[in-house]
């Protein structure tokens, strides 16, 4: 270290001290350098994995004939009103700064239905990958955020019964397996069967929705607790509760549970339930044609919270997304720290959806248009949760991916009193490569020493170096060589400057044959 | 029409009438089926073009070594405070619903600087394609929206002078030409030269920023009007105003204007201006190396509104993005309708940026960290404006692109009393094709007639049909044929069911050889 450097370093350290003291004293007045609660910055390798997930899902959606749309991140407040039941309190509102009252979207389904109604669309298969907003208690480690991405695919239009529903379940399976997730099952149920069951068990029409949301808790609470809620809080008789208990404990393969239910004559004689059972029978045939029936479990305790579902409902869960057996104990132990405790609960469903046949019509009629019938069915993939699973499962991933696309690093070597560093010359080569769509970088210094240039090239992940030697370049030549430890002793090839693009392309083709480049393939092969 | 159909149709018409009447009566109570002011839904072919622009720009950014990050759509309100000068009034705030006060981001630059400061990053080349929000007066047709996309590339870190700046200008040129935009120029200027000029002309330090923003209006107003503002509103002497006028009228090639300025000894003796001139001299060498100097015009009237710029500034404009000569007249004529009038003004700059060397440090010091030096330079592409240009220029584009990726349509033909429509069979074939990543559709009907199936395949844009003939399929065979008018009389090839994937791939390869598939290539070749 030179004297000047030492002095500079000392100065830096000194200036650090008062700043630190200051930061304690004025902490309340100072700006907080953070992102809002429940949000995060995405960067580096995490960003690459997430983009890989988006890429894989959008290819999936396109493969099934989907077109994409993009709606505004905020909607008129009244568009969202009355669509989410109890969860409406989680909606973010924009401040009234004059003009219209708006809120951030809570999901992509309601804006989609608004779009379909507004444009009088009769049928569409649309996908939409975008952020949604919920003022929920965040639990970052299990992937529950206030700002998060949803990847939705929905089919709107009048078609033969259960045909789009079956395709959505096939697509859901294809989507998850395509991301290397294999140990999942799809719980399915039917709102009409569920409503039929409640009726048959003696629940009054006006109580159906609230009993339904009590039953929905069965994935987190044992029957005893749910039963207590049904009797004590929701005012049902013991007999009704026990009858409900008999039904909602049922689950198994679609074939088995269908057989069981068809034997219950009180259920089959209920109009709603009978329609639902017929739907499930048709669905079975199609799921068998798609060979996805083995992923499906008919689970009568699945109820789904949202108001707008009218038919088939489903949720994909993995072994990791279910809460572990000792979740309660861990929660108790950790209860001083909300966020950490929730890390021990599963990530919840990783994809979910259902049929909602009246939502588009709600918009049409609420705005004075005539009544329309635009039945819809769709699925939403929870990217943050899928990301958490992939990330937790495979640390190998992190080693093999890099956030840079850089393929080529351009360097110049020389010396002596007349050595200027060949910066404009490196720029010229970079321009040639960029113009041929080759990802290229060089060090942003007029004169850079060889070690610094090699370090930078290593950091960038470049596979090929273009080297401008002082004398060689004056003779119209440069060197193209492979990078990486196995090429440390390889001097590369000395070529005419004019041939740089072809030679680089050739070396890159060699390098990429061996290498890992397709993040989608990587995710899939986990 | 059957009697039942007639009756149904009559009912529909009847129910339409009261609904329509109702809509007039209750218009104030009713829900409005619209998106918030200044926002829009993107769909169909527009969406394809926009995705093509994103694809082209993200490839560009990656080519230059960029990594991408994603920051939350809202930031703590205090992070945005004091960064945008007068424009701060255009920031959207979130409602105070308890907890932190947040605002929607106004640009991607301030969140980027916050990210760099928060993570103590020493250097990064990052790109970010995302929406930003401004409560401005919208002018949809010229691409000015309240919610719009920015595509930003920024280089942060200490490097040799003007090296990153030159690369940003090379990247800007490459980005626009890569999108088929050729008739543009990049106006450049330097904040230090501008500030030096104002000093030399007799402007006091505290008046510099307001004189700068008056000068910035020269792209929309003639000198007379700006001069009047400088003298009457901004309180400068006639002599000062005239001296400023001499300078800011200068524009031309970088070489020419540099020569002119270097002869003005009062300017070169000003410390700030002299630093700026030295920068421009170095820049010239690098722009020549990149062969982009011919796109650049040194324009001393360019000032840029934002507070945070400290060095080189630039704005790309096209012939179409400048206001037409009769803009004022058209504005007068149309003044009853704000939105339409603004359609006659140019779209403004299509990309812009500059150097901002103190922004990261502002965050560091404001939060009690020690002072850092993280100089930054960047550019932002205005996608909506670029989109408007491309869309207005080329109607041919609309004919050649389709929003669907569908390649194959699966159909079944048959008849007779035992004909069931082969729906599960079509599903099986679809599944095979999807599993091989081939985009495939079929009609969602158990029994569909040939005409309906051909119509649907035509709408989807599929290039190949897989046809399940009733008897042929029973013999283990199906037909694969090309679609399109020139193949109307082609019966296709009858093959074993097991060979469907290979045969489809073969026919698709034939079809795609001729066809237009790469939207980027299409945009570029306009």
UniProtKB/TrEMBL annotation, chains A, B:
Q: Does the keyword Aminoacyl-tRNA synthetase apply?
A: yes
Which InterPro entries has this protein been placed in? Answer: aa-tRNA-synth_II (IPR006195), aa-tRNA-synth_II/BPL/LPL (IPR045864), Anticodon-bd (IPR004154), Anticodon-bd_dom_sf (IPR036621), His-tRNA-ligase (IPR015807), HisRS-like_core (IPR041715), HisRS/HisZ (IPR004516)
Domain Aminoacyl-transfer RNA synthetases class-II family profile as annotated: residue spans: 38-403
Q: What class of enzyme is it?
A: ligase
The catalytic activity of this protein is classed by the Enzyme Commission as 6.1.1.21
Q: Which CDD domains match?
A: HisRS-like_core
Provide an example Pfam family for this protein.
tRNA-synt_His
- GO aspect biological process, one term: mitochondrial translation
Q: Which UniProt keywords apply?
A: Aminoacyl-tRNA synthetase, ATP-binding, Cytoplasm, Ligase, Nucleotide-binding, Protein biosynthesis
Instruction: Give Gene Ontology CC terms.
Output: cytosol; mitochondrion
The GO terms describing molecular function are: ATP binding; histidine-tRNA ligase activity; RNA binding
Where is this chain primarily localised?
cytoplasm
Where found in the cell? Cytoplasm
Q: Where, by residue number, does L-histidine bind?
A: 107-109, 134, 150, 154, 304, 308-309
| UniProt region (Disordered), positions on chain | 1-30
Quote the biased-composition stretches of kind Polar residues, using this chain's numbering.
Answer: 1-10
Q: Reaction(s) catalyzed by this protein? A: tRNA(His) + L-histidine + ATP = L-histidyl-tRNA(His) + AMP + diphosphate + H(+)
What function is annotated for this protein? Answer: Catalyzes the aminoacylation of histidyl-tRNA in both the cytoplasm and the mitochondrion.
Q: Would you identify the family this protein belongs to, as annotated?
A: Belongs to the class-II aminoacyl-tRNA synthetase family.
Q: Which NCBIfam families match?
A: hisS
State the name under which the record lists this protein.
Histidine--tRNA ligase, mitochondrial
Q: What is the lineage of its organism?
A: Eukaryota, Fungi, Dikarya, Ascomycota, Saccharomycotina
């Amino acid at each position: 270290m030179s004297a000047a450097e030492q002095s500079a370093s000392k100065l830096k350290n000194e200036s650090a001290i008062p700043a630190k003291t200051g930061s304690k004293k004025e902490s309340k007045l100072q700006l907080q350098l953070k992102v809002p609660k429940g949000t995060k910055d995405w960067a580096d390798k995490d960003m690459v994995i997430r983009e890989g997930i988006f890429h894989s899902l959008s290819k999936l959606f396109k493969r099934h004939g989907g077109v994409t749309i993009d709606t505004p991140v905020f909607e008129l407040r009244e568009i969202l009103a009355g669509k989410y039941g109890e969860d409406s309190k989680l909606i973010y509102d924009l401040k009234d700064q004059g003009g219209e009252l708006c809120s951030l979207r809570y999901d992509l389904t309601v804006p989609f239905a608004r779009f379909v109604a507004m444009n009088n669309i009769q049928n569409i298969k649309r996908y939409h990958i975008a952020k949604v907003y919920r003022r929920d208690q965040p639990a970052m480690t299990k992937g529950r955020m206030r700002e998060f991405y949803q990847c939705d695919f929905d089919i709107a239009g009048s078609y033969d019964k259960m045909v789009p529903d079956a395709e959505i379940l096939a697509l859901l399976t294809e989507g998850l397996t395509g991301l290397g997730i294999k140990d999942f099952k799809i719980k399915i149920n039917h709102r009409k069967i569920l409503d039929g069951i409640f009726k048959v068990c003696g629940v009054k029409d006006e109580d159906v929705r609230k009993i339904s949301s009590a039953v929905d808790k069965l994935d987190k609470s044992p029957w005893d607790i749910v039963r207590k809620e049904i009797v004590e809080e929701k005012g049902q008789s013991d007999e009704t509760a026990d009858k409900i208990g008999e039904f909602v404990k049922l689950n198994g393969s679609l074939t088995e549970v269908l057989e069981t239910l068809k034997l219950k004559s009180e259920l089959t004689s209920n109009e709603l339930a009978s329609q639902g059972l017929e739907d499930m029978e048709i669905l079975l045939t199609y799921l068998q044609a798609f060979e996805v029936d083995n992923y499906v479990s008919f689970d009568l305790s699945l109820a789904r919270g949202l108001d707008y579902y009218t038919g088939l409902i489903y949720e994909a869960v993995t072994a990791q997304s279910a809460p572990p057996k000792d979740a309660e104990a861990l929660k108790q132990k950790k209860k001083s720290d909300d966020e950490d405790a929730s890390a021990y609960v599963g990530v919840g469903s990783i994809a979910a959806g259902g049929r909602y046949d009246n939502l588009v019509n709600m918009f049409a009629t609420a705005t004075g248009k005539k009544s329309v019938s635009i039945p819809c069915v769709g699925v939403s993939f929870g990217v943050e949760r899928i990301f958490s699973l992939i990330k937790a499962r495979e640390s190998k991933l992190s080693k093999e991916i890099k956030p840079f696309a850089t393929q080529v690093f351009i360097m110049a070597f020389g010396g002596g009193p007349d050595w200027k560093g060949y910066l404009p010359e490196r720029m010229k080569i970079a321009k040639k490569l960029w113009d041929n769509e080759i990802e290229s970088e060089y060090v942003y210094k007029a004169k850079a020493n060889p070690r610094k240039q090699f370090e930078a090239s290593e950091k960038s992940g470049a596979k090929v170096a273009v080297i401008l030697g002082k004398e060689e370049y004056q003779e119209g030549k440069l060197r193209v060589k492979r990078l990486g430890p196995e090429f440390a002793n390889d001097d590369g090839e000395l070529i005419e400057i004019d041939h740089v693009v072809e030679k680089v392309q050739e070396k890159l083709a060699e390098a990429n044959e061996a290498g890992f480049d397709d993040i989608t393939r990587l995710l899939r092969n986990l």
